[in-house]
Amino acid sequence: MLDLGISKMALIGAVALIVIGPEKLPRVARTVGTLLGKAQRYVADVKAEVNRSMDLDELKKMKESMEDAGREVEKSIHSTQSDFEKEWSSVTTGLDNAGSTDDASSGTSHTWEPPPPSYKNPGKKWRLKRGSTPQWYKVRHGVRRQAQSGAARVARYRPKSQ
């Protein structure tokens, strides 16, 4: 980039003061400042867009690699499952006939199911809103505990006519 030091900036300012003049110099400086700010914002936006596109490409590559790994795991699971089913069927071929005669003779099945969970009361009054100030303190000091409408407040505090 440009290597601008204090001495070079002072020289540029002195030349601008002589060429432009003292009455137009502030307006020109403001215009140059706004243009430089816009240029910096534009460059920052372009950099951000390039970074986003690079990140998007990396994410797409990562997604593809994860999908490939998922497919490989799914294939291995299916192959393992089919191998297991083949072995299971070969092992249980002799047990199917023996198990059916035992179940028929006893009249009961040997499947065990756990009992359903019973309800346990939490022991809290969760519908009751609890404040941090105790009720006895509110009663003793006259703290208003319930919201009161405007009409009810007027009726309560209206002086009673005799």
TrEMBL record:
Biased composition (Polar residues): 89-111
Source organism superkingdom: Bacteria
Major localisation: membrane
Alphabetically ordered keywords of this record: Cell inner membrane, Cell membrane, Membrane, Protein transport, Translocation, Transmembrane, Transmembrane helix, Transport
Compositionally biased intervals (Basic and acidic residues): 65-88
Region span, Disordered: 65-162
Keyword Isomerase: no
Locations listed in the record: Cell membrane; Membrane
Keyword Transmembrane helix: yes
UniProt topology in membrane: Single-pass membrane protein
Database matches in Pfam families: TatA_B_E
Job description of the protein: Part of the twin-arginine translocation (Tat) system that transports large folded proteins containing a characteristic twin-arginine motif in their signal peptide across membranes. Together with TatC, TatB is part of a receptor directly interacting with Tat signal peptides. TatB may form an oligomeric binding site that transiently accommodates folded Tat precursor proteins before their translocation.
Assembly notes: The Tat system comprises two distinct complexes: a TatABC complex, containing multiple copies of TatA, TatB and TatC subunits, and a separate TatA complex, containing only TatA subunits. Substrates initially bind to the TatABC complex, which probably triggers association of the separate TatA complex to form the active translocon.
Family indicated by similarity: Belongs to the TatB family.
Protein name in the entry: Sec-independent protein translocase protein TatB
Name of the gene encoding the protein in the UniProt record: tatB
